[in-house]
Amino acid sequence: MIDFELSAGTKMTKKLIHSFVESSFRSVSREFDEKEHTDPAELISSVHQLMKGGGMTGMASSAGSDETDAKKGSKPKKPKEANLQGVILAEELFWGDAGLALAMPGPGLGGAAVLSTGTAEQKERIMKRFSEDKPAYGAMAITEPGCGSDTSAITTTATLDNKTNEWILNGEKIFVSMGKRATEIYDGFVVVWATLDRKAGRAGIKPFIVEKGTPGMKVTKLEHKMGIRASDTAAMVFEDCRIPHNNILGSAEVAVDKGKTEGFKGVMKTFDATRPFVAAMAIGVARAAYDMVREILDKEGVRIRYGAPVDQLTVLERDVLEMEVSLKAARLLLWRAAGMLDKGERNNLEASMAKAKAGMVGTKVTQKAVEILGPLGYSRKILLEKFMRDAKINDIFEGTGQIQLLVIARNILGYTRKELK
Ligand SMILES: Cc1cc2nc3c(=O)[nH]c(=O)nc-3n(C[C@H](O)[C@H](O)[C@H](O)COP(=O)(O)OP(=O)(O)OC[C@H]3O[C@@H](n4cnc5c(N)ncnc54)[C@H](O)[C@@H]3O)c2cc1C
In this predicted structure, what is the pLDDT of residue 312? Predict the structure, then answer.
C-alpha cells in the first residue's frame, strides 16, 4: 500500500521552510527579478546557515541519493524517504520564489550527477564541501549550441594525456544553471558531459568533474531570461582544460563493442533522480499562483462551492476547481516517482510522467491565475505575472515536455529509442 502520510519531522521542516520563504524570499522577489544577475549574498548566507543547522533541505541535496554511504561503503545514513522528503520541501522552497530558490547554495544538478554516477570515493570527495563553512554550488553542463534534447550529439571532447595522466576537455556548453556561482563566485564544481570517442556514439559520453578555478574553464556569458531571473544561466567554454584522471565519474571504459552505453546511461540515471525535483519546482510555483488567486478571491467575498452540482458551477468555480485538481494529480505522480527512487526501484517512466504533468500544470495554472485576475494579474503590483514567467522553464529544462512524452510512449508501448524518435 502506498502511504503518503508525512512524518512529524517532514511536516515541521515543511512549515519552517514555508515561513522562512514567505518572509525572506517574498519580500525581495521583485527586487532580484528586476535586478537580474545581482547576487542575493545575504539571503544565500542565511540559507546556508539554516542548511548547516539541518533546518532546510536544499533541492537535490538528496536527489539521486542511493543505497551507498560514501564514507563506509555500506548502509545509507540518509532517511529512508530522502527523495520523497526532498521533493516535498522543494515544493515549499519554490512556492516562495523559484528564481531565488534556484540561486540558493546546494549540490543541484551537479550533485545529482555525482550521486548517480560517481564511485564512493568521488561522492565523499566532491560532496563534502556541502557540509563545510562556506556556501557551495554544483552545476551540470550537457547542453551545447548544437545539442539539447538529443544529448547523444555531444561534441565536447575529453582526451587523455598519457604523459601527465590528465583529461583535457575542449568544447562549449550553454545554459548551465548556476554555472557562474559554481565556478567563479562561490566554492563549487561543474559536471561536464563530454565524449571520449565520437565514433562510439552514446557509449563514449562520460561525465567529468571540473572544480572551480580550473585553468581553461571560463564563463563567457550570462543569459537574460524570461523567468527565474535571480538564478544564473551561463555559457561556458573549455579550452585545453586539464583535470586529474580520477575526475572522470565512474568508469573510463568505452564499451561500444559490447553494445553497452554505460556513459550515456549515467545521463539517464541522473535525469531519473532530478526530474522529480523539477516536477516539485513546477508544482511549487503553480501552488503559489493558486494560493494568491484564492486569497484575493476570498478577500473579494467570492466563495468556491465544493460539492455543488456541475451544472450549477460558475465558470470561475470550475476554473479554480480544475486548478486544484491538476495540482493534486501532479503531486501524486511526483510523490510516486520520488518514493520509487527511495526504494531503489527504476522510476524512468514515473519520473517522466511526473515531470510532463507538472510542467504542463505549472504553465496552465499560472496562466489561468493571471487570466482570472485580469489586469491585476498582468500588472507588476503583485507577483502573479512573475509566477507565470517562472513556471515555463519547468517544461523546458531537464528534457522538454515533448521529450517526456516520448520517453513515456517508448516505455508503455515497448519501442526502442531508434523505433520512436
Ligand atoms: C533557463 C535554462 C536553464 C538550463 N539549465 C541547464 C543546465 O543546467 N544544464 C544543461 O545541460 N542544460 C540546461 N538547459 C538546457 C535545456 O535542458 C535545453 O534547452 C532543453 O533540453 C532543450 O534542448 P534545446 O534547447 O536544444 O532544444 P531542442 O532540442 O532544439 O528542442 C526545440 C523544440 O523541439 C522539440 N523537440 C526536440 N526533439 C523532439 C522530438 N524528438 N520529438 C518531439 N519534439 C522534439 C522540443 O521539445 C522543443 O520544443 C537549460 C535551459 C534553460 C532555458
Answer: 96
Q: Cβ(402) to ligand 1 under 6 A?
A: yes
pLDDT band at 152 (very low <50, low <70, confident <90, very high): confident
- Ligand 1 atom index nearest CA of 150: 29
How far lies 62's CA from each of 49, 57, 90, 107, 287, in Å? Answer: 18, 8, 11, 9, 23
State yes or no: is 398 an active-site residue. Answer: yes
Q: ∠ CA(45), CA(56), CA(132), 5° rounding?
A: 55
Residue scoring higher pLDDT (162 or 51): 162
Tens digits of residue pLDDT in 330-356: 999 999 999 999 999 999 999 999 999
Q: Are strands 136-141 and 187-195 parallel, antiparallel or unpaired?
A: parallel
Question: 175 CB under 6 A from ligand 1?
Answer: yes
Domain borders along the chain are 262-413
Cβ count within 10 A of residue 245: 12
Indicate the top mutation candidate among 36, 147, 175, 415 to test ligand 1's pocket, ranked by most ligand atoms within 8 A of CB: 175
Cα–Cα distance between 390 and 366 in angstroms, integer? 9
What's residue 270's pLDDT?
87
Q: Give which of 313, 305, 407, 317 is closest to 354, Cα–Cα.
A: 407
What is the distance between the alpha carbons of residues 106 and 139, in angstroms, rounded to a whole number?
A: 9
> Helix (H, G, I), strand (E, B), or coil: what is residue 382?
coil
Give the pTM: 0.92
Please name the fold of domain 262-413. Butyryl-CoA Dehydrogenase, subunit A; domain 3 (1.20.140)
